[in-house]
Design brief:
alpha+beta, 18-stranded mixed beta sheet, two-stranded antiparallel ribbon, about 20% helix, about 45% strand
Length: about 280
């Protein structure tokens, strides 16, 4: 089985082209769980599978978290797979990628930079206090796509100086909060200047902090834009893996599109030899 490994702002993925491998979908949860383990295998935040399109796109992307659970969509993953699709000849510089939560449009900016239109918001709750650590925390709750990818954005003053273990415990509590029936990715953020945001995401399915979360960054900037705390025009978001940029297109106050721009990186490609796989 051939594979490719990529990352987008440190959010890393294993890609399998199932148009060539022809593996049963039933195998992918177990494959993701084995291959994404950082000490026992290749290691990644998730597994992406390229499939034949069924709704007029160039190809279809399936996403599996590191714990084997299926994901609705992945923003940084979609940027990476757009570069993969372009360089492997699956599509041109403008791409239409089918995902379980809707169609994603991707654009090549240069060799390493890609811009995607995230799936549209289907749930927006700007004032959604949630209890954790015996207190109520202010947050916004947004789902992108249908079925919706759930995100909670939580302001944290002095985020960069926070104790990581305490923040991780808080992220874990919120991720499993009954306030989020599907669970949620928890995006801690701080507005540090005009259209400048720092963000750290505790991701469900990884069950820890990741270096970046593209859909989480889009959801956070959307909430901040609707609250009037950022302009929504080329907002710079600093994450542990680098810089992501988000623009919110609006018309008469209605959200028309969420655009995510950032870097991609080809890491390696080769053949999976992991003897723990039972294919």
């Amino acid at each position: 089985m051939r594979f490719c490994k990529m990352n987008g702002a440190g959010n890393d993925f294993i890609i399998i082209n199932n148009r060539e491998e022809r593996l049963s979908h039933d195998l992918f949860p177990a494959i993701a769980k084995v291959l994404c383990h950082r000490r026992l295998s290749i290691g990644a935040d998730g597994l992406m599978v390229v499939e034949e399109p069924s709704q007029g796109g160039d190809y279809r992307m399936l996403f599996y978290n590191a714990d084997g659970s299926a994901g609705e969509m992945c923003g940084n993953g979609a940027r990476c797979i757009c570069r993969y699709g372009y360089e492997k000849g699956l599509a041109g510089p403008v791409q239409r990628v089918e995902t379980p939560s809707g169609l994603v449009t991707g654009q090549r900016i240069d060799q390493r930079s890609y811009r995607i239109r995230l799936t549209d918001p289907t749930v927006i709750r700007l004032d959604y206090p949630v209890e954790a650590s015996h207190r109520f925390l202010s947050c916004s709750y947004i789902e992108l796509g249908n079925p919706g990818l759930p995100h909670a954005s939580v302001p944290i003053q002095g985020l960069s100086g926070m104790d990581q273990d305490q923040l991780r415990d808080l992220g874990r509590q919120l991720r499993w909060s009954p306030a989020f029936p599907k669970g949620a990715n928890i995006n801690f953020y701080e507005v540090t200047g005009p259209d400048q945001v720092t963000e750290l995401t505790y991701e469900r399915g990884v069950e820890d902090f990741t270096y970046a979360c593209g859909t989480g960054t889009g959801a956070t900037v959307l909430a901040l834009t609707l609250k009037g705390l950022v302009s929504g025009e080329d907002v710079h978001v600093t994450v542990p893996g680098g810089l992501l940029r988000v623009t919110i297109d609006r018309d008469c106050g209605q959200v028309k599109a969420i655009w995510l721009t950032g870097p991609t990186n080809f890491v390696c490609e080769g053949e999976v030899m992991d003897e723990e796989l039972q294919l």
